[in-house]
Amino acid sequence: MTVSRLAFLGPAGTYSELAAHRYQTQWAPAAEAIAQPTIPLALQAALDPATWAIVPVENALQGSVTLTLDTLWDLPELQIQAALELPIRHGLLGQDWGQIRAVHSHPQALAQCRDWLATHLPQAVPVPTASTSEGAIAARESPQVAAIASPHAAELYGLQVLATEIDDRPENRTRFWVLGKTPPTVTGTHTSLAFGASRNAPGTLLAPLQVFAERSLNLSRIESRPTRRSLGDYLFFLDIEAPRDRPAMAEALEVLPEIVETLKIFGSYTIGDR
Q: Quick check: is 256 in a domain?
């Protein structure tokens, strides 16, 4: 399928844009990268069959990007086409270290540098923004504001890189999903899905998990999210290390609807450092 546009969380300079460029270089050189102000809007843009979206789904330090999961549950038309992992190397961007009174960035980036900020800038107030680049824009407007973002953002917004590699752990990486409105994807190395349990009672989660365990299918991730219907009511997001076209996986997906309330399969795909 020809992809003419690739939506990402903007504005220019975000890690999502870097991931989009990496995907373009390898797989979709003719696609136009288009910035969106939020992750939900990037995913909604992919409802156009000529547009795919690339969005962060999991970080090595902070876990799942819940906004991606929550939005994807509401957009079951989208299928995961691929996944890629991007090393994250945060920098502190600004104009004058001595004037810094606040540090702006995306909540995930602030959390990934929490210990560094407490040690080196204890007086600075962390301020969440919609993206790391929004933080860089704020730093450009005031010498009392610094941003956590990529060195690429410093070039774009005319800022100094006041400190490099400020992540609390050097193994900081983020996984991105590439999604589009396509027929079900069935090949690759992994499958992602989500289900709602039929009742809040002992064994409600165990029964679905046994479907995979009995067929020797390994789960690489499981995440619970509230259904937003009532307190204590949850959805469960799973990554399984098998594609849909593997017989054991296909059999599991035939059994699963019988023991869960709602099942949404987001597709099979390959994970790579693309």
A: yes
Confidence (pLDDT) at 199? 64
- Give domain status of residue 54, yes or no: yes
Domain tally for the chain? 3
CA atoms of 36 and 16, how far apart (whole Å): 10
Which pTM does this prediction carry? 0.93
**Quick one: 44 and 176 in the same domain?**
yes
Identify the CA nearest to 215 among candidates 187, 241, 189, 197.
Answer: 241
Contact indicator for 180, 51 with CB cutoff of 8 Å: yes
Q: Would you say 36 and 7 are in contact if contact means Cβ atoms under 8 Å apart?
A: yes
Residue 273 has pLDDT above 70, yes or no: no
- CATH number, domain of 238, equals 3.30.70.260
Question: What range does the domain containing 22 cover?
Answer: 5-88+172-180
Interatomic CA distance for residues 156 and 10, integer angstroms: 13
CA separation for the pair 62, 76 (Å, rounded): 25
DSSP state of 202: T
CB contact set of 202 (below 8 Å; sequence gap of 6+): none
E-only strand ranges, the chain: 5-9, 32-36, 51-59, 63-64, 79-87, 91-94, 102-105, 125-128, 145-149, 160-164, 173-180, 190-196, 219-226, 234-240, 262-269, 271-272
DSSP 3-state percent helix, strand, coil across the chain (nearest 5): 30, 35, 35
Residues 65 and 176 in one domain: yes
Question: Residue 74: inside a domain, yes or no?
Answer: yes
Here the tokens at position 258 are 């019988």
- 214 occurs within a structural domain: yes
| pLDDT confidence of residue 274 | 42
